[in-house]
């Protein structure tokens, strides 16, 4: 039976921008492509557009499925569709693969026309600020002067926040979910271990692994295993895996013994097969660099002084990657600027990954907020 | 000026046991050596002996320094010495490098007399239970029928606990510090990522790196970097490193940028230079396997039913590797058996590493407890 709450078959589109892009790092891209998807219909006065921003390893395929790959369902399909929390009957949803990604937008795996080879490690560092600039270009191309809302979880939430800082007139509402105003030393530490795993993999070749017809699988696998520990809560791991042994008695060897080992290694292997190592490095650096208060002596209230948007900020009780306290800091700084902020700390056992889950209370909150947006 | 609270110059001793050791894994070691140090004097009725057990990567050099290496100070020197919390004026302290270690006791780097080569990956898996058995052999050799106390932090605390289970008549007091009655799925997950980093290092050669004149430095380094994240608290990292940049503005590259990266990479490099990879694998497995309640359907109270010792259990507020809740579980199970238990949760910002720190309140607690022990 057809799922009436799915946006159904979707197709990706691509657009090339030929105006030079001046990145925060100082590097310039003469041109670049963005791959994106849209769901729903843009209304006549173009007031119903919602931008969805993706997190570390995700992409523009946010809802629905492909005609030739019906099992490839968008990563936030539980949130977006007809009658869903972000209702495609009301909103025109735009989702884009970030610059530097490995799913179609220009990134390290793209061919550098100057050399005729993939950029690889030569692809410049990109920041959250750079992404919002490219997303503005896409908005202009689509004729969207102002987004009704920009939504994202984790690194996606950071992009939503950055929009309200850099383009306050172009976003009416920001949904900042499971995010933080900056990384802690511990967050950076985890990222650095992941990066070191990739960079010290002998198959990395300084990022030039394509020329050597290889991929730093070992490093990517370790990075993903480590990432997964931080995405899950101690509690959800305990619930899901406990100390369950996979095969009866202790093996007294280094093969998989505990269920959690099996899960992590599987996740690591799957990821290493699919994701580009240089892109992973770039995305983690974008996280490390995100710190809007930095230019304001660490004062987040001052950093937010030009913001005009309304906000829905959400956190999850067991998220220890970006804990509720991190959202509190955002909410406090927004309120200090007398902005309209709705905040909820959602009880969930799934840790950071909660933002991807279909918790009913969570989705009803988002739905109620989105329903109140006038388009 | 001489430090009158130091045990001063110490020397390591070695003893060989020729009776076959039947390990939990089923493997048998025909003979093995243990390296150990002692501080203070064993009294006439041999009632003042204290065994100190070491944690994951530590060893038998617990206090004092070597005549030819005066900067090599024992890892718990702040705790043990004349007039210190564990007073060598009162107690005879014994510290041993665990079987499977890489600091002198028989382990993967030792020569296997059957092959004439280092054991390497052929060294059998060892458990906390195996260690207590070998420590009993050492006690017998030293003429110690009963320890006044057995003390340890982290994996060392687990050994103290195991003694009270397996040899209830041979230990009067156990000091179980920053420990847990078993690892969580998350603890195991961190260990497995560390192991996978080592095992997938091309220089590991299935554990036979000695034959290839190499060492899996990359893997060991990653394992240690990751370990350090779990030893420190988010708070102590924030205090110590914050988001401080090491060299002025953002570098937009993958060299060290943040102080925390510099610290972790330094710790990783240092460790990879010194520690044996096969030993690291064994020690993490000993941690994973530790679960005294396992044979009692997970019932810790029942597991402790034969215990006779008194206890000092200590935890630290910011320890997220083995959080205070983990100590509470131990204390509860001990109290359910109507044992004498002193418990304190010590306010400390140093995370799991707190057990190594010289916090005054912590040391005064240990001192008070040790002073009350009748010898």
Quickly describe the structure.
With 375 residues, chain A is of the alpha/beta class. The first copy, chain A, is 33% helix and 17% strand.
- Largest inter-chain contact set: A-B, 55 and 55 residues
Number of strands of chain A: 14
Strand portion of chain A, in percent? 15-25%
Q: Which residues of chain A form runs of ≥5 with pLDDT under 50?
A: none
**What kind of assembly state do the chains in view correspond to?**
homodimer
Write the layout of secondary structure elements.
Two copies of one chain form a homodimer.
Chain A: E1 13-17, E2 21-22, E3 28-29, E4 32-39, E5 49-53, E6 80-81, E7 86-87, E8 92-96, E9 111-112, E10 117-118, H1 128-142, E11 147-153, H2 155-166, E12 171-177, H3 185-199, H4 217-231, H5 234-240, H6 259-274, H7 277-289, H8 300-303, E13 310-316, H9 324-336, E14 341-346, H10 360-371
Parallel strand pairs in A: 5-8, 5-11, 6-7, 11-12, 12-13, 13-14
Antiparallel strand pairs in A: 1-4, 2-3, 4-8, 9-10
Helix pairs in contact in A: 1-2, 3-4, 3-7, 4-6
Provide a descriptive summary of the structure in words.
The structure is a homodimer of 375-residue chains. With 375 residues, chain A is an alpha/beta fold. Chain A has helices at 128-142, 155-166, 185-199, 217-231, 234-240, 259-274, 277-289, 300-303, 324-336, 360-371, and strands at 13-17, 21-22, 28-29, 32-39, 49-53, 80-81, 86-87, 92-96, 111-112, 117-118, 147-153, 171-177, 310-316, 341-346. In chain A, helix 2 (155-166) links the parallel strand 11 and strand 12 (171-177). In chain A, helix 1 crosses helix 2 (155-166), helix 3 runs antiparallel to helix 7 and helix 4 crosses helix 6 (259-274). The mean pLDDT of chain A is 96. At the A-B interface, helix 3, helix 4, helix 5, helix 6 and helix 7 of A face helix 3, helix 4, helix 5, helix 6 and helix 7 of B.
